Amino acid sequence: MNGEVLAFWVLAVGLVGSALNVVLSKNLFHSVLWLAAALVGTAGIFIALDAEFLGAVQVLLYAGGVITVVVFAIVVTERLVGERLSQTSRRILGGAVVAVGVLAMVLNVIRRSGIDMPRPEMTADITKWMGISLLTQFLLPFELLGVLLLAGLLAATYFARPEE
Amino acid sequence: MPLSAYLSLAAVLFSIGLFGVITRRNTVGILLGVELMLNAVNINFVAFSRFHGTALGMIFTLFAICITVAEIALGLALVILLFRMRRTSTADHIDWLKG
Amino acid sequence: MNPVTLAILALLLPAGAFLLIGVLAPLRRSGRPAAFLSIAAVATSLAAAIRTWQLASGSVEPIRAAWNWLPGANGPLATVGVLIDPQSSLMLILVTLVATLVQIYSLEYLHDEPPAAFGRYYAYHSLFVFSMMGVVLSPNLLQLFVCWELVGVCSYLLIGFWYRKPEAARAALKAFWTTKAGDVGLLIGIVLLYRLAGTWDILELEHMVKGGTLATAGLGVITFCLYLGAMGKSAQFPLHVWLPDAMEGPTPVSALIHAATMVTAGVYLLVRTEFLFHQTPQVLLLVGWIGGITALLAAIMACVQTDIKKVLAYSTVSQLGYMMTAVGAGFAGAGFLHLLTHGVFKALLFLGAGAVIHAVHSNEMHDMGGLFKRMPQVATVFIIGTLSLAGVPAFAGFISKEEVLGATLAGGLTGPFVMLLTGAFLTAFYMSKVVFLVFFAAPAAPGHAHGHTHDDGHHGHHGDPPFLMAGPLWILAIAAIVIGVYSTFFHHAEPEFASPGWLTPVAVAMGLAGIVGAYLTYQTRTISADTLASVFAPIRVAAVNKFWLDDLYLFIYRHILLAFARLIGWTDRYIVDGVLNVISAWTLDGGDALRRIQTGRVGDYIFAVAAGLLVLMLWMRGTL
Amino acid sequence: MNGFVLAPTAPLGLEIGLGLLMLVVLSMGLFRPSTPNRLTGWVALIGLLVLTGVAFAVTPGGSLFAGSFQVDALAVFAKRLFLVSAAISVLATLGMSSDRFAKRGSEYHFAVLASLLGMLVLSSARELILLFVSFELMSIPLYFLTGFLKKDETAGEGALKFFLVGSVSSAILLYGISFIFGATGTTNIAAIAIAMASGSVFVKLGLVLTFAGIGFKIAAVPFHMWVPDTYEAASTPFVAWLSVAPKAAGFIVIFRLYLEGAGSTAMVWVPLVSAMAAVTIIAGNLMAIPQKNVKRMLAYSGVAHIGYLLMGFAAVSASGTGMILFYLVAYLFGNMGAFLCVQAVGSAEHSDDFDAYKGLAQRSPVLALSLLVFLLSLGGIPFVAGFWAKLFIFRAIIDQHMYGLALIGAMATIVALYYYLVLSARMYIEKPDNPQPVPIAAPLLVAILLCAVGVVVMGAYPEPWVRAVMDAANGLF
Predict the structure, then answer these.
(1) What CATH architecture does domain B3-92 belong to?
(2) Which of B79, B95, B96, B97 is most worth mutating to test chain C (most C CB atoms within 10 A of its CB)?
């Protein structure tokens, strides 16, 4: 068992565990923290897949940014209502059936696909290539992303701002 | 590890997220489920990308992460708005519109 | 401008006027401005039509322009466009000319209508002119049919113009349903034709017939169906019953629609599709015989009418019979010629009669008499119209009637020929009767004077009508004379057939005999009208009762149709409705049940999305 | 700046123009925050009209970024459709009485234009990353626009539901795209088409997931449940646009992915799409019947219309595809027009219930007649646009011998007529409670009349439209 395999299994178990906690925890705040753990775990998977840059983005943007925003939102709403946000689940059976059904279908496809190709050697600096292609081949989506973030930001501030 | 291991892990995470969005009563909880699903997708992209020997999937992931950030900010703002008007963030109680 | 542009311009101007008047409520309610707009449009159309004719008569080939309307897999399913040849351009002139004059005439005639009704009248008129020109210019049978139906709608609206009057409303309905019966035949005919030929285009069809590529099997049914449509529209026996009733509409409407233009659409249709009818001689024979019967019966009925408009109405039916007989004899050109001249002088007669009615406020000839002194102009033009209709040389109807008679004889339709000849005598007789009774005979006793007054208007013009009414009359009268003189003395078109030398003297003699007979009976009273009536008593009784056709229809309607309708109604109420009620109850319940799925809870919506995804995956699992 | 520098970006002209317009609109809000005026709306409208004019002058051809952005016939057609619908919606918004559209007009119109930018790029996108980003750029402002009247009791609720269902669907869509990418190793649709010829299972899995994601956007049953709630909550001129443009965009994505990308594999989809079409038609029409609110009724009937469009897709033929485009144009005029009439009545009566329409024909004949024309078109009555649309769709699937589906569609049309006629009867037969004419703002009236003209002209003379859509569709086959 080499390092990559070991790392994968550790990360996988951690990821699935924290993901389950995200959806099962009774306390919303705990859920968010478990999500943060899952996101960091995902960053680990990225690094195991030689995508260090993405791993960094994942930790900084997601685990850092998103979680901060969520926590902030929870705190704001809790302050508004003055009590702890509880969170319960319903349709657990239905949800489980659908989720397991989808999982079974996808796993079945993965099993039958015979996709398992060998992992090629990394030949080039992926981060550099990503940087270059973002400003050449993917310039248009990159620009659109800017517009999208601006629109999302406008919308978020519009909704969150107390009425003037 | 083979590609199928990464894909399977992503599938499990995706299903957990799906379970979450279906069962959670709290709107923030539903959002967390969506995050899990998107996270699974990202693993899929990066894994495929790595095994195809291309960075295209990673670029895709980069875009996906950024879009997700915008989405979650918008979603939380909506939750706060609803909270301010209805004093609740429980999705099931937000049901004035129906039929 | 090229003829196509001109023709389309002529076509679209009245349509534009209709839309403007119809959509702009203030314009419609203002009355006169709407009228002026309509008149300006149709007068411009007239100018365009004349220019189109000038251009078209110079070209040998028909000019056809078509645009795709309904796209189909192999070429267009239907086209819209115009087909310009001498026939359509002449007909176009007739339609626009009479329409222009009638619209100007109506300004005065309907002077006392409220402005809103006035606007409505002109809106209908514009729509009518547009649709009629659509029929005339149509290059294919589908477009022709659509316009044909529109024309019928306009006729319905205009007959029922005084819709508060029960007779008018009933007459409008009668006209609508009778012509509709024919139209169903027409529709079946053109659908069958499409199945047979694969096209509705008149030129293409003609080309196919000439090239011999059109199958003749089943063509008889098609031409018969086409003829059914023509029969309804052109008031052929036994579907003619609607036309006399249609006189409930305003007189200018009768002049335009029920004399000069719309009723001739059936003849025009047959002229247009003559090449098809030539393939089916049996149907052609039927057309000829029915034409002859119509001509004679209607002439007889015209003799016994006392209402001046009814006389003219039966006269129109009779003349339509003449045209149809010529078509049936295989010489559509002769019928078409008579159509054109008849359009001019019959419009003249109707408008003249309208002027009389306008003055005396009655349709009954008893209430008139000795009017020559009071309204010499009207009397003069009316006499010109009568002489034309009687087929006196140097008047418009002379040559065309000769042609029709000659064509009938040449076509071997001896029976109808005799009927037409008798009809010619009767025509001259009843028209002269009108002239003598209305204009020359001593006025009837005052006690008779209050017959039922039909028309509107409160103050009578006891004298010649004002310029707006007299002008159109004179224009038509001059046209009738010019056409007559020109065709009698200068223009001897070589007919397609040879008529025997005795035909012209005999025909003229018949006409003159009719006039003399009427003179002796109604002017000098040498022959007592009562004696005449008793001699011809059986025919007279039959004619007064309209040959019991209305009674027959009433019987059929009461005893057969109503019983049938009751049966259908019963089935409808208890069986069809029952089934429908059950189905609709299920539908409503289903809707309500489904609506409950929409709980308003977003979790359920998400669940539906996820479950839908699972269903999709399960469905596709065979291929995954 | 000279032609040499600009020339390479020529295919992006419309998008760049729109971007500049967005800058202008946004900066007008920055420098005059919260000043009530409708200037931004007029600026946006004029800009949109100019861009629409340009779009109609554009001829297909040209591509950028190694073929990821391609201005083909379908793209040009779609861009025109998006621009026209957006212009009508913005025009109608100018007739809104709420001062929120004056105070926050800059943000509102910026969001409309941002979403429109997403649609414009989407119609040209032949590369998955670009497709996804533009799809999201289209979607996110829609959430904002739905909740724009945030002081209304229900606006936030409608937006939140739309957003939550939308983000779940978006995750599913992205998951699907990841499998399509994974099976082929490329994101270029042309290259995917080549790689897909082998028919990998991952492709099919990806297409299933993607279909669910797009199913949300086009509101096919069972992914449609957000539709009535969102439509009821949002401002009506926006709903008019929401009910048309994103649906059209969804179909453009379907064409790109399933017809261009999947090619012959698309045939696998026929049973699934037919079933979905049938279910969507039946459920949409049935659920529309018991509605008491006209906006909800139109929402459900809109769902049913998506079923007819899916029917056209099930035909998997050039004529089916073309007729979807024809249907979309007819639907654009008919549905937008109907919603705008709802806006006119709603702003006068403060109610969207059927009862508000009592005797409308006596109160405002033009409005009632327009609405009648729109309803007849939606119902598929002869000689209005919707009739040809339905007829052509039916013909396309009958050509493929799918008689059962055609029968279901035809029968559902009768059901649909029921509720359209119920509303028409309210307008024409019942007496009004209040005989005053309905006041209509001039821009709204112009927008309504534009739609009415579109419906009538398409109905009277469908030929040139059919030619246009067939030109756009033929490139895909």
Answers:
(1) Orthogonal Bundle (1.10)
(2) B95
